[in-house]
Amino acid sequence: MSEPLLSVRDLKTQFFTEDGTVRAVDGISFDVHEGEIVGLVGESGAGKSVATSSILRLVDSPGEIVGGEIEFKGETIFGLEADDDGELRPRDEMLTENEMRKRIRGREIAIIFQDPMESLNPVFTVGGQLREFIEINRDLDPDEAKEEAIDMLREVGIPAPESRYDEYPHQFSGGMRQRVLIAMALACQPDLIIADEPTTALDVTVEGEILEMVTELQEKYDTSFIWVTHDMSVVAEICDRVNVMYLGEIIEQAEVDDLFYDTKHPYTSALLDSMPRPDRTVDELRPIEGVMPEAIDPPAGCRFHSRCPEAREVCREVHPEPRDLSEEGEPRHAAACVKHDAFDVGYDESPPIDTRAGGGFSAGLTETGGEAE
Amino acid sequence: MSEVGPPESDPEALLQVRDLCKHFDNESGLLAGVELDDEFPYVSRSTSDVRAVDGVSFDIKQGETLGLVGESGCGKSTLARTVLRLLEPTSGSVYFQGQDLASMSGEPLRRMRKDMQMIFQDPQSSLDPRMKVGPIVEEPMKAHGMLDEEGREARAKELLEKVGLDPQHYNRYPHAFSGGQRQRVNLARALSVNPDFIVCDEPVSALDVSIQAQVLNTMEELQDEFDLTYLFIAHDLSVIRHISDRVAVMYLGEIVELADKEELFENPKHPYTRALLDAIPVPDPRSGGRKALLSGDVPSPIDPPSGCRFRTRCPSVIQPDEYDMTDEAWRNVVEFQRAVERRAFEETDPDALRDRYFDDATPGGDAGTLLDEAFGHIERDEWDAAEQLLVERFADQSVCATANPAYEVGSELGDDRHYAACHLRRDEAVAAAVDGTAFDDAARSRPEADD
Predict the structure, then answer these.
(1) Which ranges carry the ABC transporter domain (chain B) (predicted)?
(2) Are B85 and B220 found together in one domain?
(3) Which of B210, B235, B338 to mutate to test the interface with A (most CBs of A within 10 A)?
């Protein structure tokens, strides 16, 4: 396979809080190749958004990227090396903050956020904001930039773009605002767009339109996407390859069809089983027991063992790294679960853990309200 | 209890809503709606209402779950609040256990509230962060003077256990709970006064899928145990399919279709329902993605389209009687008219437009002449004139624009009624009405034969 566009290796981002260190992203590795849509799936609190902000080096204090490497088109977005005293310091070839701001963000890697109202300034017109963005990032003069902005609005399906150009964000519906952000992201023809739950707040009908539009535009401009979502249906529809995250780690990595039809990690199967289906009536849903533990103090061993229906004693002790379990010649399908023979840690002989026994009511309890957002 | 139900009263129905309307003033204040004119009397006053809920009727039977689904802004939450009389209805009535809530007020209404509770979407903002969960659950009982202090505490603990929390969490604050657990506290609070009817306004849409499933399962268990009746609002059709017995689909303040769950999902009769169902993503990469999608935005409820409100986005608008086009030609005309309305293209050359919109079928006769006229307007850059011509002569002539549809059609799955507000169903509805009377006669001749 060709050289990946973006490659993330063993990325670790931590937040240093008064209560301790939150290991929001704990050693994830994945690649994005040219022209593909890569999904990043997980429940809230899995570390999806922190992972994407780390790629753009947008993590603020008390958060910090503490390890790993991010390479984009042969340039180092993040990388550390040990100096003579053994202290870690940024490598020389790592892009400076200035280069990141001027060259990478917006121009090479654009990002679309979940809430379009928070990304648009309510006191400036939609067209003005789009024009300014194009003017600065593409060095066009204001008139050319305006023309380009109107073209982009038409491209993303805004009706009557000439007259809507002068309207304010509040005059647009939620779906339209998201279209404006997509226009903004596409305006500089970046190589990679990070879409952080862009359709979560929208109705299914609007979501459908937007996903369809993204697929068309992606073919036209050959842009790569990292699509962050918690919705398996969106993944099924749009992604080429998928990374499933749980508690700061990637626990399964596969092509989309393999993920759904040859699921290798119990968390992924549990996630798929817990969804109500639109195409058939399900009598009883099978929810995942309990809630996701805190990233401040993750369970020892496999992080999912406390909720896993297939957990055995060995899962408490062994912490599995994702391993490629695919057959020779097949696309990579990695999973981090010791039940597979490739891990060979004695899963079959190990006695099962009864995940419900110790838990009772408190199994579902978090001290600080984990998933509040 | 004075039995003053609606005319065709169904003895099984717990709640009967008849022609319920809720309009909001678009502007308020002294100068609301005042406009200045050029001629006498110089000042005119017009009020424009937002017609959030407009003539909605349905029944909910004891012990069932009615799912209410629709896009955001269609009036689902306003309907829920109006049904509970949290909002004053503009007109219409709501009969709860035979009494009209719309005409009640003061103390009798307050006492009725004991039997009707509500669960809100956001589990965070619907719990007072400065109260412990125990007192939160006890508060409705206090308001309705139920039990003494010890009794209330005992009941609160019992309810916390029922909804799947530890009774020892009685003294914790809401922030110590996760989203799913907070929604369980909400459930316990709603159950505390032993209601018959609970309105659930998007209770699980703020939760993660795995947690969503836990809460939905708990809600079903509680329904069985306490014989509850739910009005369950959601925009997620998968959730609706899982939990409902019957489903009502709402569009722009009106119910467009109401039927048994299986019937509605397997045999939808309204183009809007069909479009909504087609738009749901299926968690399966081999499903081939979504089918034909709706275009355009929901029109404003201030000035909704005449006739069928869905006609401005409907993929199967009916051709006006005065023209005689093929179906393909008519569909092309509709598509072209909507494109002009949205100013979706810049092209002004008639031949190019013809190629683009009327490639496979061109209407002839009167319709063809009108189209030529529209092309002429576009060529001269008179977009408004073109739009007006197309809308007045085509879109507004359709039966969809001139008459308000409301039909009762035969059900194929299940034996409940199937209501669909679409003119395409007129013939079926007539047939079903004939069948229906025959069935009624047959049923009357052998009373209580079933069961």
Answers:
(1) 34-277
(2) yes
(3) B210
Q: Residue B312 falls within a domain, yes or no?
A: no
Assign residue B149 the CATH number of its domain.
3.40.50.300
Can you tell me the mean pLDDT for B32-56?
75
- Structure confidence by residue, pLDDT tens digits, B295-325: 777 788 888 888 888 888 888 888 888 888 8
Within this chain, do residues B253 and B334 fall inside the same structural domain, yes or no?
A: no
Contacts of B287 in chain A (CB under 8 A): 236, 279
CB contact under 8 A, A278 and B286: no
Structural domains in chain B (count): 2
Query: From the CA of A114, how many Å to the nearest CA of chain B?
Result: 14
The answer to whether residue B216 is domain-embedded is: yes
Mutate to test the interface with A, among B121, B178, B278 (most CBs of A within 10 A): B178
Q: Cβ of B166 and A365 within 8 Å?
A: yes
The answer as to whether B217 is a domain residue is: yes
pLDDT (tens digit per residue) in B182-199? 888 999 999 999 899 999
Q: Which of B177, B285, B297 lies closest to A257 in CB terms?
A: B285
Sheet with B229-234, side-by-side order of all strands: B116-119, B197-201, B229-234, B65-69, B246-251, B254-260, B418-420, B407-409
What are the DSSP calls for A270-293, one per residue?
A: HHHHTSPPSSS--SS--PPSS-PP
Domain holding B363, by residue range, is: 327-397
Q: Look at residues B397, B415, B431 and tell me which one is the last residue of a structural domain.
A: B397
Q: What is the pLDDT of residue A373?
A: 37
- C-beta atoms of A204 and B279 within 8 A: yes
In chain B, which residues have their Cβ closer than 8 Å to the Cβ of A270? 210
Phi-psi label, residue A155: left if phi above 0, alpha if psi -120 to 50, beta otherwise: alpha
For B387-443, the pLDDT digits (tens) are 888 888 888 888 888 888 888 887 777 667 788 888 888 777 776 665 544 444 333
* Whole-number Å distance between alpha carbons of A291 and A275: 16
Give ipTM to 2 decimals: 0.76
| CB-CB contact of A289 with A327 (8 Å) | no
Chain A partners within 8 Å of B342 (Cβ):
159-160
Q: Which of B397, B414, B435 is the last residue of a domain?
A: B397
Would the pTM count as exceeding 0.90?
no
